[in-house]
Amino acid sequence: MGPRGNHFYDFAQMGVGSCVLGYADDDVNRAVISAIQNGSMTSLNCYEEVELAERLIELHPWAGMVRFSRTGGEACAIAVRIARAASGKSKVAFCGYHGWHDWYLSANLASASSLDGQLLPGLEPIGVPRELRETALPFNYNRLDELESLVGSYPDQIGVIIMEPIRGSSPASGFLEGVREIANRIRAVLIFDEVTSGFRMNLVEFT
Q1: Is residue 112 in some structural domain?
Q2: In this structure, is the dihedral angle defined by the CA atoms of residues 17, 22, 28 and 30, taken in order, positive or negative?
Q3: Is position 90 within any domain?
Q4: Residue 201 domain flag
Q5: Total domains in the fold of the chain
Q6: Residue 19 lies in a domain
Q7: Which of 152, 166, 194, 195 is most exposed, with minimal Cβ within 10 Å?
Q8: Structural domain of 80
Q9: Tens-place pLDDT, residues 75-121
Q10: Among 118, 157, 125, 122, which residue's Cα sits nearest to residue 140?
């Protein structure tokens, strides 16, 4: 309900899925107001970030560390940079929408329609260096054959595979397992961008 009594409806799944608690959650609002009143500006990590990092690792024991960012696109850019450094290879195969940073928009340098099937058609790579052409390579969801084709076209060059594990529909049988196998085979870092799926797919009790 808005301040003038108007009702507003969100058809974008609460910030594309990132607002897992919904809007104006009372507990969140109280915590934010308290942080503002106590002063929240610091150049170092605040203790709440450390507590949250420890809690996230507790919830996800496969994770060894946590890195925070302000937006999903920034998180993906950080992850891709780290993965490129770890693999030593610069080409990125991707599936889904992962923000607006240069590494992602560079897909449309090769073809203006490369990103059309990845959620938002018509994104223009204005200002993205032409030298990034063919460094970001799209494949479509549930199309393992397309990823295999990219690997065949760019042998020993793809060092990162980043994708949304679940989009509008569930993965086909063997799709995610197949992506994992390909990543292992070509020694690429596999990144799951879970802004949309979040904590919804595996239920965890938060206490």
Answers
A1: yes
A2: positive
A3: yes
A4: no
A5: 1
A6: no
A7: 152
A8: 72-192
A9: 999 999 999 999 999 999 999 989 889 999 999 888 777 787 776 77
A10: 118
